[in-house]
Amino acid sequence: MPKKNLGVDIGSSGVRIAEITRRGNHAWLTNYGHTSLPQKINTNLASDRECQLVQKAINEICRRARFSTDKAYSTIPGCYTANQTFHFDQQTAKEVIESWVKDNLPTKHLGQDVLIKWQKIHPSTKKGCQTIQASATNKDIIERYQNIFRNTYLNLQDLETNYHALGRSLAGHDHRPTMIIDMGDKYTDVTITQHGHPIITKSLEFGGEQITAALAKHLNIDQDQAEQFKKDRQVAGLLDKDCPLIASVRAELRDLLAKALRKKIKLDKIIVSGGCAGDQELVTWLEKSLGVKVYPGNPWSRVVYQEDIKPLLAEITHYFPTAVGVAMKGLE
């Protein structure tokens, strides 16, 4: 019987679910669904009202899509996680690794009670060593996400960070170092991957909401007009000017490039996804600012699907990398 899983991406403005089925050596997209939330939420899911909105959205998608499995995997946004790679001698004992990761993974911003997970990366990113990829999340956040699924039609199998899902769907097993920039409403998750694994990660407090506010201020228009400008992909005015918001993002991305170079990692390409990924002006600005070729992300390139739905998938390409990537986790 074919192995199949659902990947659930909970965003601040909507929920997306992808059903991926393993058939032989291929991953097939066998179903999908998405819906917008009636109001934007904080993805830390701190309020009962926000949790109820997400649960209702998940159940609505399940009723419409009629998925053939209830096994679900989901992600926690990068802003609520800590991620880092460590290198150890091949003979280093598991207990030593665990102690080192606990003492050296930067988790202060997550609070006191955190859960740390780590795994070996194959192949190692450093010759002669074993590379460990460690992640941490506050246990309260984990519990909130787990509780979401207890009142839905789905059976949650596991949670991982957005960075892992993005690497799996947009970079795959590509050995070449790649920067992935996934822009959401409030945060932009950035990861530099190698062999598809997140090596360097950072969550920037930058997204669609900040772009809208900056456009409103720059053009002296109201929020609704600015939102329409953004939807019409008319952000070039911000990119061409000395906008503090844009200058700050450029500096953050350049810092990540510099950090990669210090680790002797030279980027081969940049992949963008999320709401503004289809804006050619933004792509051109990124290439000019960072000096690296930029490509739009396409999670469908790593799965097989029926040819007749290709036009439908093209309309939602930039919104499904996380859902597709985390669904594929269960097929590994």
Q: Order of strands across the biggest sheet?
A: 3-2-1-4-8
- CATH architecture, by name, is 2-Layer Sandwich
Q: How many domain regions?
A: 1
Classified by CATH, the class is: Alpha Beta
Helix fraction by DSSP (H/I, runs of at least 4): 25-40%
Helix segment tally: 11
Largest sheet: 5 strands, mixed
Distance between the termini: 16 Å
Tell me how many strands there are: 13
How much beta, percentage-wise?
A: 25-35%
Looking at the structure, the CATH topology is Nucleotidyltransferase, domain 5
Tell me, rounded to a whole number, the average pLDDT. Answer: 90
Compressed to H and E, one letter per element, the order equals EEEHEEHEEHEHEEEHHHHEHEHH
Gyration radius from CA atoms, angstroms: 20 Å
- Shape descriptor: globular
CATH superfamily grouping: ATPase, nucleotide binding domain
Structural class: alpha/beta
Task: Identify low-pLDDT runs.
Answer: none
Structure write-up:
With 332 residues, the protein is α/β, with parallel strands linked by helices. It has a single domain, classed as 2-Layer Sandwich (Nucleotidyltransferase, domain 5). It is 37% helix and 30% strand. The chain has eleven helices and 13 strands. The strands form three sheets. A five-stranded mixed β-sheet has the order 3-2-1-4-8. A five-stranded mixed β-sheet has the order 11-10-9-12-13. A hairpin with a 4-residue loop joins strand 9 and strand 10 (188-194). The protein is globular and about 60 Å long. The two termini are 16 Å apart. The model has no long low-confidence stretch (mean pLDDT 90).
